[in-house]
Specification:
This protein has 85 residues and is an all-beta fold. It has one domain: 10 Kd Chaperonin, Protein Cpn10, Chain O (Roll), CATH 2.30.33.40. Helix content is 0%, strand content 39%. The protein contains no helices and six strands. It has a six-stranded antiparallel beta sheet with strand order 4-5-1-2-3-6, with no helix packed on it. A hairpin with a 2-residue loop joins strand 4 and strand 5.
Amino acid sequence: MNFKPLGKRVLVERTEVEEKTASGIILVDSAKEKPNTAIVKAVGSEVTELKEGDTVVFEQFRGTELTLQGEDYLVLDLENIIGVM
């Protein structure tokens, strides 16, 4: 992939969402919440706290969605990342 975030930004790929509830009900796509955990794919030059492969938790409804080579990613500002798992 030829994408490098600038400054204090991070490129992440969301983790998969559970397709069933605890009671076994299968969720349709429109009923699923987007996850707020993701795998770091690239970091900007000013990001020293994270590295590729880290799993992060970020604030809900943040970031810019984009598609690269047919895959969906999210670009987050470092300040929107809550922590590392």
